[in-house]
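Recall that a protein's primary structure is simply its ordered list of amino acids. Everything else, from secondary elements to tertiary packing, is in principle encoded there. The following example makes that idea concrete.
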Amino acid sequence: MLKPRTFWILVLLLHALGFLQALHTGSIYLVDSIDYLSQAENIKLHGSFYAAPWDQAVKPDYFSFRPPVYGFLIYCIKALVQTDYAILFLQACLSLSTIWGVVKLAKELGFEPKKTHTILLGILLLYPSQIIHCNFVMSDVLFQSLLFWSCYFTYGLWSEPNYKMSFLAVLFFSIAMLTKPVAFLLGMSIALILFFVFIRKNTLRYLLPFLVLPFIYHAYSSYNEKVTGYYHYSSVTPIFVLKYMAKYTNGQLFGENYADSVQEIIMQKANSASSYQERYEGMNAAGKEIIMQHPYFFAWFNIKGWLAFMLDPGRFEWVHFLNLPEGNYLGLYHVIHTQGLVNGVLHFIKNAPLVLLSILFLCLVWNVFTAFAFLKSLFNKNLSLILRICIFLFVAYIIGSTGVLGLSRYRIAVAPLLWIGVILFFSPKPNSSSSAKN
């Protein structure tokens, strides 16, 4: 069993090794990174949240594509230190703070600290995605931290309603919804559930701070209306519906070439729209029309996406972190949905390097176990019922929101909540009465 000091030394070492790998390869940028870096530059030079290069052809969707928190954070960091590696350092600190939060929660639940430290170290070794994502210029680690603390304080508020927990939960919900658009309904959804719980306890007054969330939604949507002429929260919605949900549905049913041709026709019409409202609503409607033509298949498609969310071993992140050439081995999830299950798997195995296949197989096995431990924990009465509900709500929300994509990167957001299930699996009987709180 690890003592706290030994545990933190080893965790720091893992993060340092990840940082050194990033420093060595310089492979710290993904496709989305240019959006955030452009947004930071545009905040500095133009006072705009536009998330694309200012001096290139205008991309109408990118005025509201990225909420401002991560871009503004990059702007603040680079105002002090002119290197993107400072962003990675801050993300490592955020990762450490989240790991500390998991240790804190486990202790409050009555888990033995030394055992918790040992299990968590094992998790970090078998789930290197945590370290990998600290070393990309991406908002995932920040978003992870915000969601963890939102869940932590929601659990505290639900267990013992008070204004302190309510204000802290709202604070993290607010920052989260301004970091990734996927979170814009999360806090309000949780508030709705708590409304029905608190009304019976005559404690509705503790939900008053949550009124800030619809105000933030309105304020940011109004800002987007000012710059685009259309009241909406994020342009991610029609892009996700059309370019992912509808496209992958068509691709699975009729082939990748057909899906691309349909999308190209729709986008030609969208690009000729006379207003942003016409563009937004046209893309959204076209995507939904495709989906509604195949509702049962789309439902099954989503279920497969949810499974992929839990199990995806993370080929994309490993390739970039190790700075491997992309070659002709496309992502497993992509080839399965464009070539079918058997042909897709065979294509991937045939073309991926052996070392990468070995790493991904190990990660897949671990992800299967983590998913099992998570599901088992939801029915384990040794864990607080309220905490089980909170963890389920947060994980289910993120899984449902990401839908058909099912990418390993999206699992980062709720990874620390999944770790609770692993800790419980190896420590089935917390020794504190707090674990029975419901």
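The CA atoms of residues 301 and 404 lie 6 Å apart. The radius of gyration is 22 Å.
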